[in-house]
Amino acid sequence: MKKKDILKEVVKHIDIKKINSVPIVDAMRDMSFTSRDTAEAADILNKMIRDKGCTVFLTIAGSTSAGGCMQVYVDMVKANMVDAIVATGASIVDMDFFEALGFKHYKGTPYADDKLLRNNYIDRIYDTYIDEEELQVCDMTIGKIADSLEPRPYSSREFIREMGKYLTKKSKKKDSLVQVCYEHNVPIFCPAFSDSSAGFGLVRHQWDHPEKHVSIDSVKDFLELTKIKMAAKTSGLFMIGGGVPKNFIQDTVICSEVLGKDVPMHKYAVQITVADPRDGACSSSTLKEASSWGKVDTVYEKMVYAEATSVLPLIASYVYHKGYWKTRKKYEWAKIFE
Amino acid sequence: MKKKDILKEVVKHIDIKKINSVPIVDAMRDMSFTSRDTAEAADILNKMIRDKGCTVFLTIAGSTSAGGCMQVYVDMVKANMVDAIVATGASIVDMDFFEALGFKHYKGTPYADDKLLRNNYIDRIYDTYIDEEELQVCDMTIGKIADSLEPRPYSSREFIREMGKYLTKKSKKKDSLVQVCYEHNVPIFCPAFSDSSAGFGLVRHQWDHPEKHVSIDSVKDFLELTKIKMAAKTSGLFMIGGGVPKNFIQDTVICSEVLGKDVPMHKYAVQITVADPRDGACSSSTLKEASSWGKVDTVYEKMVYAEATSVLPLIASYVYHKGYWKTRKKYEWAKIFE
Amino acid sequence: MKKKDILKEVVKHIDIKKINSVPIVDAMRDMSFTSRDTAEAADILNKMIRDKGCTVFLTIAGSTSAGGCMQVYVDMVKANMVDAIVATGASIVDMDFFEALGFKHYKGTPYADDKLLRNNYIDRIYDTYIDEEELQVCDMTIGKIADSLEPRPYSSREFIREMGKYLTKKSKKKDSLVQVCYEHNVPIFCPAFSDSSAGFGLVRHQWDHPEKHVSIDSVKDFLELTKIKMAAKTSGLFMIGGGVPKNFIQDTVICSEVLGKDVPMHKYAVQITVADPRDGACSSSTLKEASSWGKVDTVYEKMVYAEATSVLPLIASYVYHKGYWKTRKKYEWAKIFE
Amino acid sequence: MKKKDILKEVVKHIDIKKINSVPIVDAMRDMSFTSRDTAEAADILNKMIRDKGCTVFLTIAGSTSAGGCMQVYVDMVKANMVDAIVATGASIVDMDFFEALGFKHYKGTPYADDKLLRNNYIDRIYDTYIDEEELQVCDMTIGKIADSLEPRPYSSREFIREMGKYLTKKSKKKDSLVQVCYEHNVPIFCPAFSDSSAGFGLVRHQWDHPEKHVSIDSVKDFLELTKIKMAAKTSGLFMIGGGVPKNFIQDTVICSEVLGKDVPMHKYAVQITVADPRDGACSSSTLKEASSWGKVDTVYEKMVYAEATSVLPLIASYVYHKGYWKTRKKYEWAKIFE
Q1: Which helix (H) or strand (E) holds D125?
Q2: Contact B218, B193 (CB under 8 A)
Q3: Closest approach of chain D CAs to the CA of A144, in angstroms?
Q4: Are residues B194 and C221, on separate chains, in Cβ contact within 8 Å?
Q5: What is the distance between the alpha carbons of residues C277 and C284, in angstroms, rounded to a whole number?
Q6: Segment A23-53, tens digit of pLDDT
Q7: Residue B17 is among the residues annotated as catalytic for this protein
Q8: What is the ipTM of this complex?
Q9: What CA dihedral angle connects D162, D168, D173 and D177, to 10 degrees?
């Protein structure tokens, strides 16, 4: 079996604009278990959008972008439903930027022969495949962007902004999250930026330029994100998966205090996850637990225990079709750093 | 807080006829993870319906009937999408028969004060409440039906048929699964029938009639269900949760062999579950594992790892709106026992 | 690859008498998460044993007996730590009775080629194998026992007692749970008895004797188990997995009420499970939830979220080596049915 | 209820030196499911220790350090069973460094009233409590260390080394991982260092010194860690939880290629996790999946699906008491950066 026989069927990203989940979510509201949780999560996201003065933070961990939800995030930004993003490096670089360069994700199977895949330079994410040779092009593109920049410490946000600028000239697919956020002044933070395809490119850059080079300062990320929280005051969190992005955005409340500025806890919070809260890890910690830390208020919070590709499209489509974003203020938080 | 203040909002059952999930499921087919699994499960159920000569077995474990999916099952039977049912006693008696008597399930919260509920005779299923006094009426109704029958061993199917007959005269809600199956000659089996509200009524019946009484013979259940499999030959399984119903229907293939009649493995199989396969329990065992036992074929099988209320409506609505049931043969397997 | 090459390494059952977990459990008591839960579960089981007048019910669901814990249950009965058992049919017949006949379980792998296994008549439980031809001998032995009995309805307890009697003459392995319980007058209930190897044998028996035959009356099971609860009054539950056994023993409190005799809720309760409480299924329902039903008291209850083979040996060894069973009263509840 | 009444019972860390798990693990090897996986994981860790020339990387994510396993890691380092560590910032700073400063974790309950905790400045991790005021001291200590350093980009390893040096003078508890690793030249990497208590201190430092300040360059982390992998060649991974540490260490194989030096895949790999592989997230991705990326070899790999506090002590104690570390070579990888 050859590579082109394995990489045959591309993953296509769901279009929440074309699919109207309002009737289904309205029915789920009066059911039980995960269906009701899904409807209540949609209601809380809708409240964030309707609350004048509320900044919406989207966090993305896991592989939903590879798994068919990439356009959901893009459409949310274009519809002014999201004001800032905190994500894993993989979501932003290996998946979104990667597709912006013209590459694709492919449908595979979790029962694959991983040796066969290895021999064909195919990487597997559960039931989804990536062409590793294309991923190397992505790594090297990051390296080239770094080579072109003034050598100094950057926040991941600054670097991702440069990636967005690069895409305005070079992208093969125009509708990437990196480019759309650049154009809409929605800042993207990846607090563990090196832990991704970007890391390979940047390590190569530093290896080639041992003295003077770009570095990625995650402290700067934290400071910048906290500045947004301090400016925004009222805020809501829409969290896909957990991980570093979840913890990072929650911690901005405490970080503001550390800088001497009291800000309100995050007023709204939704998390979609399959994680199990009993191991005490951040990814799985409940939002009620977060309230003990003074990070998240408990009036409007909902954990949805589900694999996100199955419920995120329902939630996002619901809020999209309710349409309150049409009259919503644009924050363009990226501008405060210029 | 009084009972009537706690039991205020009723659970309403989703109507797959009114909600058209075809566009969403069609989009999910080209995504990854649980969304793709959901679409593939819908496709397999659709294949079962289209396969002339295929008997569809529905199994129900867990609390989806209480949790807003009760009408899904009723509509599937009315649309001739299901030919026989294997279920837990709770799904059939405590939930479906209970609502047929005019009672309701109520929306609650998993963070309830269980002592307060206890003091108000309110029973909790995660985020759903039941009035225990109403449940006692249900228990006693079962006892009365038993009192009215000839004392001898019955299969659960025979007894549930009597419950259906009772409802044709006494039901307050006409559209119950027990009554609709009675009317459409779709047999219902509860292999662990006593493990439910029915158990209380039947124990009371035997206590009051120590010498001559109705007994429930689960061996007879197994024999009858195997007779259907032997008559049906080609079969597909649509399984909500696992438990005894899952194991029971799978075992009919082996049981036929034991009776000297070779039958084909179940040709199609879908299971929706949150169970974790790593503990070796039947509920969570994969369908691939079942194939080692010679129970289930592996060409058309799909595990959907999701809480069922979130994906079952999508799957059932999809197959309903594809409409292949309209020209499907009626099996009326209940008739072979008359 | 031939059958004898696949079935090479036998599963050996852990011996809690030889392994002293007291130091480990004592350390776990001051840790967090599952380790502390494990220690607290051991403490509650120990309390049950020390509480004069407390009857201990053991429930077994899942495949721990096949997976190396079979001797744990036997040793608990021999050490007078268990007074009655409620189990799945598979645990008692396919696993325990099966090994009593001289057969074994084998170490396998979850990554097996299930087609290869099928062709060799090897059945797989996750990473454990069974010789299907041996299992058929087990089925048929049940059939022969049924053939030898007076035709009438039996509780599963009565039938399992006959299996114990059979083993006193015919067993190849003396230390089976079925035989040891027979000898110690510890009753075993399988409320879904037919859902096991026993079912095949009994169906064959009824098929061969269509007019007069043994039937298994699960109502009788429920009545008998409730009679023990009514006689025992104070009780504790030690539950491995969930399923029908968990629900059945919990329901005896309610069933006593139905028969006009108020009994106390189960005073102690431990459950070891990997199930997820969010689907509203009984297997996964928390013990706090059970308290809303008036089944289980909440002073001494503990859910241990773990795959049981990893923590059950620690808990059982701890209580064994604490030694309070040495002076404990013997209840021999089986005698009340004679 | 006052703070001192809530923070009463301290979490005590298990001592693998005093507890000998060899008999239990030896028994588990012939069982099934998680018990056998646990034994096989212990065997693989033992192989890493015995393999002359193999560098052992320990990764730590989640809250096991707070939850009673802190001393396990320290003892592994002191016994020369670990050559480099990749961890979350929280494990190293909020938990380990925090206790080095003389503070404690406390036993709590997952059913806490989080509002009450909030009002008392108590932070909750599932069933474990932390005094937030003590945590602020920890934050500020990091800030002071940063203030004392030359302003330039640091890898997290460099900064944590400074923390170790600080502790040699100021620690109240001598046996911390940070200090012991400093003394044994075992480098610690936190690729998402700011996502922790350290972040607060460092943000404060940069806020106070806007022009010239310490920054944390995660690219440098990746480069340094890759240099160790390139020097080490043969390597084994012992991973507690997943997250960024898991991904980061796995990626060093690819990163070496990017730098033009082919290195072997990680030869051994063990991961203990409760994560569910079906969401495509890195934390939960199987080691077989990692082999498709060319990161991990599949001959000696084992996923143990368990909450780590319940099985890590068994595994670590087993390898400790087997004693092969006594004659093992010391790598002191920290020295290559000096």
Answers
A1: strand D122-125
A2: yes
A3: 14
A4: yes
A5: 5
A6: 999 999 999 999 999 999 999 999 999 999 9
A7: no
A8: 0.97
A9: 50
